[in-house]
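FORM 12-B: Structure-to-Sequence Request
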């Protein structure tokens, strides 16, 4: 800067007319530079002030539920913590899904919303508790729709995000062995109705063979009345029956379809 003033002084002493013009020119440039620097400093201060104000203001702190206002000292307020939303919270916040009209994947009956419900997390089908209990006892807790062991109790209807209906496989005497552990529908002629020695279990035989050898529908003790009673079951002999149930392969009794209520016997001809 001192060099500029010295140069201006020399010019003025040698040629006053030109030196005056040049001096004024340099003075204008100098003033312009100074003003630009002041403006830049002012802008930086304004920007930092706005950033500070943004940090000092928020609506509600999730961790403290305290309102934070402009100019409040943040040292006196608990730090705002942003927590991840859990999967359960996401489910509950979703719109409730109407599950009226959904059917139990095992029995095929409409889901009763007042009963304890279970859902397969993999294929999203539903079970009522009585059906789930049969899966635990007779199917190693495996879903009759997908075969996975991912069935859990529904603790809150609001948590249901997805739902699915299950249509059972159609089994025949030629292919029923392919559907072990699955829900099937089967139509066949009843050659005989056999009872266990204690008279508490029934086998409706679709093949003219011994209990342990032929393909059959079975009704276990405790389910006889729910399946129509002894007279209804015995009268199936010589009829064509359409049945829906769980197909399993018992290590001793062989291939069988398990039913638990009369509605699973879809038709009798």
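FORM 12-B RESPONSE
SEQUENCE OUT:
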């Amino acid at each position: 800067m001192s060099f500029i003033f010295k140069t201006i002084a020399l010019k003025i002493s040698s040629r006053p007319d030109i030196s005056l013009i040049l001096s004024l020119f340099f003075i204008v440039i100098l003033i312009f530079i100074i003003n630009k620097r002041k403006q830049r400093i002012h802008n930086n201060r304004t920007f930092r002030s706005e950033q500070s104000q943004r940090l000092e203001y928020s609506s509600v702190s999730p961790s403290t539920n305290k309102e934070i206002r402009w100019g409040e000292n943040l040292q006196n307020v608990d730090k705002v913590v942003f927590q991840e939303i859990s999967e359960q919270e996401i489910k509950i916040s979703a719109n409730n899904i109407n599950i009226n009209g959904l059917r139990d994947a095992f029995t095929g009956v409409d889901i009763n919303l007042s009963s304890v419900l279970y859902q397969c997390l993999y294929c999203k089908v539903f079970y009522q508790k009585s059906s789930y209990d049969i899966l635990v006892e007779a199917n190693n807790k495996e879903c009759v729709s997908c075969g996975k062991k991912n069935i859990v109790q529904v603790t809150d209807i609001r948590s249901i995000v997805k739902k699915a209906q299950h249509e059972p496989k159609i089994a025949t005497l030629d292919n029923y062995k392919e559907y072990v552990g699955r829900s099937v529908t089967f139509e066949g002629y009843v050659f005989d109705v056999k009872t266990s020695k204690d008279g508490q279990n029934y086998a409706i035989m679709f093949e003219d063979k011994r209990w342990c050898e032929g393909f059959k529908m079975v009704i276990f003790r405790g389910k006889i009345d729910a399946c129509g009673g002894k007279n209804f079951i015995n009268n199936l002999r010589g009829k064509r029956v359409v049945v829906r149930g769980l197909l399993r392969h018992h290590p001793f009794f062989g291939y069988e379809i398990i039913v638990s209520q009369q509605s699973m016997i879809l038709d009798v001809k």
